[in-house]
Amino acid sequence: MPTVDQPRRHRLRIGALATALTATFALLCCGGGSAAFFLTGLGDEQQNLISNELDCKKDHQVTLNGTLPRMGRYGQSQMRNAAVIIKVGQEMKVPPRGWVIAIATAMQESGLRNLANSTVVGSRDIPNEGVGRDHDSVGLFQQRAGWGSVAQRMTPEYASRKFYEKLLKVDNWQQLPLTLAAQKVQISAYPDAYAKHEEVASQIVNVLARGAAKTVQIGNRTLCDQASGDNIAASGWTAPIPGRVGSGFRTASRPRHNGVDIAARKGTPIHAAAAGRVLVARCDPDHNGRRDCDVDGSPAKGGCGWFVDILHAGRYVTRYCHMVEKPLVVPGQAVKAGEVIGRVGSSGNSSGPHLHFEVHRDGDRSSLGAIDPVPFMRQRGATLTASARIVQQ
Description:
Layout: E1 24-26, E2 33-35, H1 76-91, H2 96-110, E3 116-117, E4 131-132, H3 150-153, H4 156-167, H5 178-186, H6 198-208, E5 215-218, E6 221-224, E7 260-263, E8 269-271, E9 276-283, E10 306-312, E11 317-323, E12 334-335, E13 340-343, E14 354-360, E15 370-371, H7 373-379, E16 390-391
Parallel strand pairs: 3-4
Antiparallel strand pairs: 1-2, 5-6, 6-16, 7-14, 8-13, 9-10, 9-12, 10-11, 11-14, 14-15
Helix pairs in contact: 1-2, 1-4, 2-5, 2-6
């Protein structure tokens, strides 16, 4: 799939992205142009604090003792609090997705610190890691008086257990976007704030629980690195379709191929790789400016055909090209991880039915933002290449 590239430019810093609302970039796999989008509320947590290339182990137990790894601004006491959250989840038999949600929530509410409150009598006399002043909220999850006594709420084990008890009562909580699941527990004044922590929360779970965020729950089994379709990894990601990668990312023979191609039968459902918001869902013009995506394309035609771009937490963007018909989603629509957004086809610059799949970082939909989807998805337990192994939880 030939590309039309923009002249080389400096990468936009996250803080400057808002000025790029009206900028235009070339589509990566195909010949048409499309607008860049900036959406608030999906998060700006700094990524890549540590390597997430961790094997998924059979034993996901955590330790609360000894020296724990530091992650960015999260030091020993904060990582130990995260370990407590995971351990309580394990004791309650909460699947790893719940651990990620709980840690992301505590990151937003307290920075993973067990906080006292300057307005709550007696709270500063209890061992704490800082003092807040939000209403009568205390502890890791900033729980208010209705959640228990001050001493209980400032006990990490108690606070974690109360969080999980409420989370488990939320219908289909494992299928919900992290922000929505956390909000149904916390009822926060800033409901969109939790999502920005999902990436780092997943990394913390992987580090402390030996790759547990890369697992998916299917029945009573825990599968490593096998999230696909509507089976979502604890990280919140899933492979958009099953199958192996044929043409890879920027190979020697196709240096401007800014995604990967996964062959599949025409009509195969395409799933959103993670929860997010649809940026683009339309027919991409070919080299001659025609928008005739309802017919099969050819290698010389140009364009992505029917395609969709989705913005995810962490400012990642995924792209899905060559759909057989008009996408099933529209711009601005919120989608869940695993939601069907379209079906495999051969529209645009295509020689046969397949999904062309791209991943971009920093909200940058141009070729400068494109990264190799294979290691990216593997780090999230949604491998695009190798079959996974089954492990026992």
